[in-house]
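Running low. Got one?
___
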Amino acid sequence: MQPKTVLLTLAIAALYVLHQDVGFWRTAHPLVFGFLPVALAYHAAYCVAAAVLMWVLTRVAWPHHLDDTRERRH
């Protein structure tokens, strides 16, 4: 395996583990920015992290031959 593949796989696994949020389910405190329950703030940050990881995956690991728009003659 290439180091890039290992790092991306570890990033996906880390995001999966972080998705299993059980620490903030029982309380709404502390409030983030004075109004946002901590569980909601955690979920918002997780969504941003997932979007960034998907962007990285499409930029780095996307198979470039799928974007070939030239007509292929067989």
